[in-house]
Design a protein that fits this description.
The complex is a heterodimer of chains A (123) and B (595).
Chain A (H helix, E strand, L loop, with lengths): L3 H15 L9 E6 L2 H5 L2 H14 L5 E6 L11 E4 L6 E3 L4 H13 L9 H4 L2
Parallel strand pairs in A: 1-2
Antiparallel strand pairs in A: 1-3, 3-4
Chain B lengths: L3 E6 L2 H5 L2 H14 L6 E6 L11 E4 L3 E3 L7 H11 L12 E2 L2 E2 L6 H4 L17 H6 L4 H9 L2 H11 L11 H10 L6 E6 L8 H8 L1 H15 L3 E7 L3 H16 L4 E4 L4 E10 L8 H8 L23 E5 H13 L1 H5 L9 E8 L5 E6 L4 H8 L9 E6 L5 E4 L9 H6 L8 E6 L4 H15 L5 H4 L1 H13 L5 H17 L3 H5 L2 H9 L1 H10 L13 E3 L9 H5 L5 E2 L7 E2 L9 H5 L5 E3 L1
The chains are: A alpha+beta (123), B alpha/beta (595).
Keywords (chain B): 4Fe-4S, Iron, Iron-sulfur, Metal-binding
Protein name (chain B): NADH-quinone oxidoreductase subunit NuoF
InterPro entries (chain B): 4Fe4S_Fe-S-bd (IPR017896), 4Fe4S_Fe_S_CS (IPR017900), NADH-UbQ_OxRdtase_51kDa_CS (IPR001949), Nuo51_FMN-bd (IPR011538), Nuo51_FMN-bd_sf (IPR037225), Nuop51_4Fe4S-bd (IPR019575), Nuop51_4Fe4S-bd_sf (IPR037207), Soluble_ligand-bd (IPR019554)
Chain lengths: 123, 595
């Protein structure tokens, strides 16, 4: 470490890893259904894809977490995105590839991907 | 990238209740579930709620699991970490209200606390310098080295109103300005981590949970007074703290944050550890420095003060662990931020180690000016078993007791001294109606007699005589004249002892005499111990009306002092009774009493 600037650069880099330990009440929450039905339908790789993509893009205001079964097992893997002050968006039959697209379009740019939501699936 | 962090307390309290095995269990179960890439397990410092250890916190949910056993880990991994279902039965009950999980910061234990010195304890991994850096670690040092002159640092500290947290309460900025003003070719910075008061463990927790904060502050002190060498004097009885300090010093050196040419500014500073062998007197500053020099730990008269002639005869700044832990925050957030907390003459926060007859045994950090009642009844959760509060002892063997009538006093340096106690390093022992105040005074005097270094007569002989008088009173052989004699002896010791420890040694006696003189009189005149503690003044008797003659007491009496026929009232032979109380504990009918 040769200068204060170097120290500050290191701080900014390692800070990313600590984000989930702070108060996250204002964050966008990505909730992946990880009950038996979700896991059987392939929710694990979906969860990992969200975690990795969110980290890769440095989205500090996003918390990726998991939940139990919400009762629509035929649509698993189900992912809900909750943003403070906005209506909840429910994505169904997710895959890791779709997850990456959701991160890019929805989380990073605010465009809901209607074609993957439960509304589109039940039509 | 990890999506979840599992924080396991690695403080001394939780380590002794098995947190190391919990970490092992997590690593095994996570591996089994294939989650090692997603979930990170971190060993942290103390969370403060030691009574509920071992403690585990899972983020991002912030779930606070208490009293976790290694057998519970599988459930946490499979339910919470894999499926996202919080294991409610293991949550700290205070965080569950009407089946809803609330934030830890809203619980009674945490909501009145304000963490400055403990800000990183239980939050970061103390064995990883990167986590300290992530939370602005070494930024204060960087700011001081690049933007501030030594006089700026001193002014900031003076403006902040920070006073020494070791007990004396001397203004830190003033102390540093004296050391800076002394001219010499070599100066030193020392840290007093020889926490010796019975029941105090604040400094241990800071060293275990956030060792870099102390290192950073000592470097700032070095820059300010013009020293390039520091010593941390830490008790050998704190093996975890010693290990983490060694790791922290090693990592700081490796990263160029300690040693030569720090942050490319040309400033050199290095640190060494010195382990104390457990003598109480080595917590006294002059004795501590004598011990670092390699001599027997004995105090020497002041003046000259350490700022003029300290370690190896050179100007030295010596502060306590908690004082140092505040300093990086003051530099970064400013003097105004710090002085906005607290009372007029005592700024900031103070860490207390809560112990004794209280629900939430543990570590709390409160703004100065919080009342004793808030600390005991709200944060501490009150006194167990519906007993009544009698007194709180602050300042350990140098302090005094605070009776119930002063419970609403705002805690700060000056208020505590005004009522005959002192802040001390921060031990706070709560006593209820079952504690005998004469016995408490005797306990502390026994400690002082044991720990007196013997250099000066008032302490060596005076405390011994004082102890003998107390012993006489607890045995029912005291007289009213003894009380006056004790008081006189107390003042004599206070005025004539060489060091702070001797001068304050009579405080437990003086303050109990002041507030609980009636208990002393009961021992001396009535030959009774009202709390039922002093064995020589007790008799166990059986109530003939309540006794059913079940013979349980007689079977359990180790001295065969209880006689009686089956189904007829029993009697205790007082000449044989050793007053162990076993009969009273066993009696199912409440027929045995102390009189």
């Amino acid at each position: 470490m040769k200068s204060l600037a170097e120290l500050q650069a290191l701080r900014d880099q390692v800070k990313n890893n600590m984000g989930i330990r702070s108060d996250d009440s204002g964050n966008i929450r990505v909730v992946v259904g990880m009950a038996t039905c979700g896991i059987a339908a392939g929710a694990r790789p979906v969860l990992s894809a969200f975690t990795e993509e969110v980290a890769k893009r440095g989205l500090h205001n996003v918390t990726v977490t998991q939940t139990g079964c919400i009762g629509i097992c035929q649509y698993e893997p189900v992912v809900e995105i909750m943003e403070p002050g906005k209506e909840k968006v429910t994505y169904v039959k997710m895959t890791p590839e779709k997850a990456v697209q959701v991160v890019v379009n929805h989380l990073a740019n605010g465009n809901v991907m209607n074609e993957y939501t439960i509304g589109a699936a039940t039509k | 990238m990890y999506r979840s962090h599992v924080l396991v307390c690695g403080g001394t309290g939780c380590t002794s209740s098995g947190s190391a095995r919990i970490i092992e269990a997590f690593e095994k179960e996570l591996d089994h579930a294939g989650l090692t890439e997603e979930v990170k397990v971190i060993k942290t410092g103390c969370f403060g709620l030691c009574a509920l250890g071992p403690v585990v916190i899972v983020y991002p949910e912030g779930s606070f699991y208490s009293r976790v056993a290694p057998e519970d880990v599988q459930e946490i991994v499979e339910e919470h970490l894999l499926k996202g279902r919080i294991v409610k039965r293991l949550l700290y009950t205070e965080t569950v209200v009407e089946d809803q999980v609330k934030s830890l910061n809203d619980t009674d234990f945490y909501k009145k606390q304000h963490r400055v010195a403990l800000r990183n304890c239980g939050v970061i991994n103390p064995e990883d310098i990167n986590e300290y850096i992530a939370y602005d670690g070494y930024q204060a040092l960087g700011k001081v080295l690049t933007e501030m002159t030594p006089d700026d640092v001193i002014k900031t500290l003076k403006d902040s109103g920070l006073r020494g947290r070791g007990g004396g309460g001397f203004p830190t900025g003033l102390k540093w300005s004296f050391a800076k003003a002394s001219v010499d070719d070599q100066k030193y910075v020392c840290c007093n981590a020889d926490e010796g008061d019975p029941g105090a463990f604040m400094d241990r927790s800071v060293l275990e949970g956030d060792p870099h904060a102390v290192i950073e502050a000592m470097e700032i002190a070095g820059y300010t007074i013009g020293a390039n060498q520091g010593y941390i004097y830490v008790r050998a009885e704190y093996p975890i703290a010693v290990k983490r300090l060694e790791i922290a010093i090693g990592q700081a050196r490796e990263m160029g944050l300690l040693g030569k040419d720090i942050l490319g500014t040309g400033f050199d500073f290095d640190l060494e550890l010195r382990l104390g062998a457990g003598a109480f007197v080595c917590g006294e500053e002059t004795a501590l420095m004598t011990s670092i020099e390699g001599h027997r730990g004995e105090p020497r008269p002041r003046p000259p003060f350490p700022a003029v002639k300290g370690l190896f005869g050179k100007p030295t700044v010596l502060n306590n662990v908690e004082t140092y832990a505040n300093i990086p925050q003051i530099i970064l957030k400013g003097a105004d931020w710090f002085s906005s907390m607290g009372t007029e003459k005592s700024k900031g926060t103070k860490v207390f180690a809560l112990g004794g007859k209280i629900h939430n045994t543990g570590l709390v950090e409160i703004p100065m000016g919080t009342t004793l009642r808030e600390v005991i009844e709200e944060i501490g959760g009150g006194i167990p078993n519906g007993k009544k509060f009698k007194a709180a002892q602050t300042g350990g063997p140098s302090g005094g007791c605070i009776p119930a009538e002063h419970m609403d006093i705002e805690i700060d340096y000056d208020n505590l001294i005004a009522i005959g106690s002192m802040m001390g390093s921060g031990g706070l022992i709560v006593m209820d109606e079952d504690n005998c105040m004469v016995d408490i005074a005797k306990f502390f005097l026994e400690f002082t007699v044991d720990e007196s270094c013997g250099k000066c007569t008032p302490c060596r002989i005076g405390t011994k005589r004082l102890y003998e008088l107390l012993d006489k009173i607890t045995k029912g052989k005291g007289t009213l004249e003894d009380l006056d004699k004790m008081e006189e002896l107390c003042y004599y010791i206070k005025e004539n002892a060489l060091c702070g420890l001797g001068q304050t040694a009579p405080n437990p006696v003086l303050s109990t005499l002041r507030y609980f003189r009636d208990e002393y009189v009961a021992h001396v005149v009535d030959k009774k111990c009202p709390a039922g503690v002093c064995k020589a003044l007790l008799n166990f008797v059986i109530d003939r009306d309540k006794c059913r003659g079940c013979t349980l007491c007689a079977k359990n009496c180790p001295a065969d002092a209880i006689v009686g026929e089956v189904k007829k009232p029993h009697v205790i032979d007082t000449s044989k009774c050793i007053k162990c109380g076993a009969c009273m504990e066993k009696c199912k009918f409440g027929a045995i009493m102390k009189k």
